[in-house]
Amino acid sequence: MQSFTTLTGVAAPLPMINIDTDMIIPKQYLKTIKRTGLGKGLFSELRYNADGTENPDFVLNKPAYKDAEILVAGDNFGCGSSREHAPWALLDKGIRCVISTSFADIFYNNCFKNGILPIVVSPENHAKLLDDAERGANARLTIDLAAQEIRGPDGGTVKFDIDPFRKRCLLEGLDDIGLTMQKDASIASFESKIAAERPWA
Known about the structure:
Number of strands: 7
CATH class: Alpha Beta
Distance between the termini: 34 Å
Number of helices: 8
Strand order of the largest sheet: 4-3-2-1-5-6-7
Number of domains: 1
Radius of gyration: 19 Å
Mean pLDDT: 92
Helix content: 25-40%
CATH topology: Aconitase, domain 4
CATH architecture: Alpha-Beta Barrel
Strand content: 15-25%
CATH superfamily: Aconitase, domain 4
């Protein structure tokens, strides 16, 4: 998993509330178990018209936000069914951080397992960050995970809380497999011991 330390990038405003996982990545894209290629389906019902052309009114289709790496989203982001394809699609599109006033629990947990930083902020700070995002590509945000702060284009900062264990995993790029592999020596020692004690097993 790619580590997350400091990210400076364009933030796209998506203030809709209750964006569910089906809206993030519709069901027709769930046939694959690959983590790549899902970016084209991200928000597809909002991004594309019925004829397959891009909807120019959707934020990620606007020139200022086509390369956005941060999403400032509305309340209760990621609700609905528990599909890990949702963070996969965000990551494949290049989005490494989602900021909201609240997240659905399963989506929130899945983000950390895939190298995406979900940040919960107060409604007041959310309004400030939305205002920054709506100013376009020249108003870039910096997310500093070590310092646990968001720095705006005018020098303002917003502090955020994060579980220390999840913070360490993101900083070091450790998903569940990476965490397990840190115990590789202990696992190998245990397996050797069991093989010696129970050669028939």
